Amino acid sequence: MFVINCPYCGERDQQEFKAGGEAHIERPKQPTELSDDEWAEYLFMRKNIKGVQFERWNHAHGCRKWFNMVRDTSNDEIKLVYKMGEKPPLE
Amino acid sequence: MSANLRVKSSEYIDETHRVSFKFNGKTYYGFKGDTLASALLANDVHLVGRSFKYHRPRGIMTAGSEEPNAIVQVNDNTNRTEPNVRATEVEIYEGLEASSQNCWPNVNFDIGGINNLISPFLPAGFYYKTFMWPASFWEKYEFFIRHSAGLGKSPTEKDPDIYDHRNIHCDVLVVGAGISGILAAKNAAKNNFKTLLIDEKNELGGATIYQDKEFNKINNQGSSDWIKKEINELKNISNLEIKTRTSVAAYHGYNYLLARENLTDHLEKKNKNNKVRQRLLKIRAKKVILATGALERPLVFNNNDRPGIILSTAVKKYADYFGVKCGEKNVFFTNNDSAYESALCLHNKGIKVDAIVDIRDNSNSKIVKAVEQTGIKIYWSHTVVDTNGYRRLDNISIMRLSNDGMTVTGKRINISCDCLGVAGGWTPAVHLFTQSGGKLKFDEDNNVFLPNKYPSDQISVGSCNGNFNLKEIINELSIKLKEFLKIDQTDFDNIAIESEEETSKRNIWLLPSDKAIGKTKPFVDYQNDATAKDIKLALREGFRSIEHVKRYTTTGMGTDQGKLGNMHALGIISDTAGVKMGELGTTTFRPPYTPLTFGTIVGRSVGEFFDIFRRTAMNHWHIENKAEFENVGQWKRGWYYPINGETMHQAVQRESKAARESAGILDASTLGKIDIQGSDASEFLNRVYTNAWSKLAIGKCRYGLMLNEDGMVYDDGVTTRLGENHYLMTTTTGGAANVLGKLEDYLQTEWPELDVYLTSVTDHYATASVCGPNSKKILKKIIPDLDLSDENFPHMSFKEVKINNIKCRVMRISFTGEHSYEINIQASFGKALWEKCIEAGKEFNITPYGTETMHLLRAEKGFIIVGQDTDGTMTPIDLQMDWIVSKKKYDFIGKRSLYRSDTMREDRKQLVGLLTDDPNIILEEGAQIVSELKQNPIQMLGHVTSSYFSPNLNKSIALAVVRGGKDMMGKKLFIPMEDKTISVTVANPVFFDEENKRLNA
């Protein structure tokens, strides 16, 4: 059970949060221009990394804000949390 | 009681307080402070159970939670019965009843014991290999296997006890109150850390409180006396909380630990009532100090499982702590010095020790010399090759070990004994450390796995970290504590310690016998009856991974999770396969460390609190009017309202007819309601619904369908435009929370530029839906000022009105196909509104109807229910709802997916109506649909999603999804059931009032 540092509320128990899958997958602005394969790439394809992964999380039982998290899936270490719209760290 | 088995009084046993208890129906006596195990031993009862597979007689082996054999059923035939309880952990109390498990008809004569005789035919994987063929016989085999297996009986009555949960936040958690834990906790607390100290026993101090005073000294005092003084001091430290009888079950990431606190298990029955029995502590600690100690290992030799064969330190604990001797003729079998401390303890108490069998060729440590001086015979370089005695150990045979330890030589020597104390070294209890994600390293000198990489802010100290001698433990603890807590000094930096150092080591995982291994029974896992032979067989058959060998032989898979034998299993695999132990790794240690009761896990979340119900404002009226309820999401919804003993079918038929012929009323409060405001609200709705919203006039309502990005129908409902920038969206009852979550997700992440605010108002409004040809007249009575003409208040529009000065929103919308109104009022007035409607409707026989009738009425109209007629694979096109998908809009959620090659296939399952050829047959929902009966294999075309008998059409109707159904209008299909085949015809899903005339009637 993680302790997650919500960028709006501070440290809270994982129970208050909902995981929302891989981060930084932007919805295409012009979906109708895309081929089936390109649309499928957006719709279905997700990474499942053992190691450092960028994820979306929602403080569902708190401020209800979505935010981003950098987490090492091999040991669950949360390296960083940052707000939606902020740039992902390069490392 | 055989008084002669009690040795001189122990300070932990209150001999003035006699306690009677029953074991296997017979009454025995023990003293306050006894465990069930110590009391049984004091009564000379060693045989307490039978093993799982061979039903061999088994006795008490340990004095702690690692016990594999002495597992008993407590309080059988009562509502407090509990299986698989370790007799070594049960504190006795007046009236305790316990009985043996795994035996029939009784523990002394067990029919399953025949398995022991035929054991050559029951090797590892026996069940897998034997019961595979013929496959059809499995059910017959299973019956017998299930009856001959099983650990104890589960209770059949409701648990009368109360359980509880408690959250604890602390700076430092110390697990284990042996000498390391006590010193760590004391120094943490004294340095202003809010500290919690936990131990599974009822007394603090671990093994130190009965440690040998001669060979373990602190400041020239026996270590046991010194530690008692320390324990007394703990009680005066204010920011230290101590929990005894508390076992840490799980250590999760981020220093989150779960512990079970036992509060009443040791109390007499009359003192148990109305108290919390067990409490689950949910601990979040900033820092964790594991001082979980070490478990003594047995030795693996032929017939090493007989009652009377006990761990050497357990023999010592029973004598020292409980004042009980385990036998009259004691022998020890060892590979290290621990057994000598036990032998000396027994000798000093006047208990006869006949011999010590040691696989080493010598030892020069002081304690060994001291034992030699007592005259106890020591057999160096010898091993036990066999033991005898069926229900109790009677004698052992020993032989000289070869230099390489692989064989035995010379003559057998028989030694008569009724207790054999075995000492195979120590296994650090690293279970919690590895549960937390810690990685181990193998220490080849001591043959132990030790903590290596800590995954969180924690340390392991004492013998769980591989320090086995007092001096070493305390010196290293001082260094580690200072670093871990960042403190300058501890209060035990300058104490003088004397302790014994081990000088000679020898370890043989599987000790040889003079018999071929195939003829021996060297048990590795006592509880699951896995022998060294089974492990070797598994390796011969090609298993290599330790995880596979574990599952094939079931080694380590009992309720004790192989706390005693896992290391031997690894050692034997390593020796046999020629792989280094460090490279083999270990099997995964999983929570719980010791078994938990279900009661502790669920705590107070039982009965009506198991899953909290939501109830509408009208709920009391439904109860008073004898409604049957249905669970929808978390809501309790009125299902139907039977009168005069009606069946469900009768009630629903009556309600459905009444709603169409005169008037019906439904509590629709549970529908999700989301208040949407902001200058971009219209644009937002355009993007989330499939149809267009920009042109919806203020005061009008529109039905909307929401898709997932994959094009599948997600939710539906009517949304009303309350103002220029203000909408009220309704969702399905079950989908409300998810829809809000999804909308917030898109607003925050994909379209943050939109000026839109969402508020859930589901609980804020209660909704009464009045429908039927007389609904207008009823509304007129309730709201006389409102012009209800079609011109002023047409279908799909909304009015803000006042009823008795209370503001209401009235929507003229319909889910039944009838002329109908939904009145929304502040929830606190919900019941009053409902009663007002009922009162006003009396002259029209207004009939309250529940969800079942609602479903029937909408099915007559062919309206879908998301989640019943859809299952996450249906597009609006599949549902024949093309009309609601805007062709003009550039984009909305899921639009692109409607043009994927897969979603455009003609042969997708599509929603159709079905009419049975015999109008009286009602189809079963979920029934499979086929077109050919003689096909092999028969091809399923789809299934029935909704099915009812329509009283208004006087025939059975159904909705179904059928492959290519759109083009099957009028086609005959079949529904094969268990006892008959039903013929149906594909029909238009709108069965009733296709022209929608009744909406404006």
Question: Which helices and strands appear, and what pairs or packs with what?
Answer:
The complex is a heterodimer of chains A (91) and B (1001).
Chain A: E1 3-6, E2 10-13, E3 18-22, H1 36-43, E4 52-58, E5 66-72, E6 77-83
Antiparallel strand pairs in A: 1-2, 3-4, 4-5, 5-6
Chain B: E1 14-23, E2 26-32, H1 36-42, E3 47-50, E4 57-59, E5 71-74, E6 82-86, E7 97-100, H2 114-117, H3 126-130, H4 138-148, E8 162-175, H5 179-190, E9 195-198, E10 217-218, E11 221-222, H6 223-234, E12 240-243, E13 246-252, E14 256-262, H7 269-272, E15 276-290, E16 294-296, E17 309-311, H8 312-320, E18 330-334, H9 338-348, E19 353-358, H10 366-374, E20 377-380, E21 382-388, E22 395-401, E23 408-416, E24 419-423, E25 426-428, H11 431-435, E26 439-443, E27 448-453, E28 458-460, H12 470-485, E29 497-498, E30 523-525, E31 530-531, H13 532-540, H14 546-553, H15 566-577, H16 581-584, H17 598-602, H18 619-624, E32 628-632, E33 635-640, H19 648-661, E34 664-667, E35 672-677, H20 681-688, E36 701-707, E37 713-723, E38 726-731, H21 736-750, E39 757-760, E40 765-771, H22 775-782, E41 797-803, E42 806-812, E43 820-826, H23 830-841, E44 847-848, H24 851-860, E45 909-916, E46 928-929, E47 942-950, E48 955-963, E49 972-976, E50 981-987
Helix pairs in contact in B: 5-6, 5-12, 8-9, 9-10, 13-14, 13-15, 19-24, 22-23
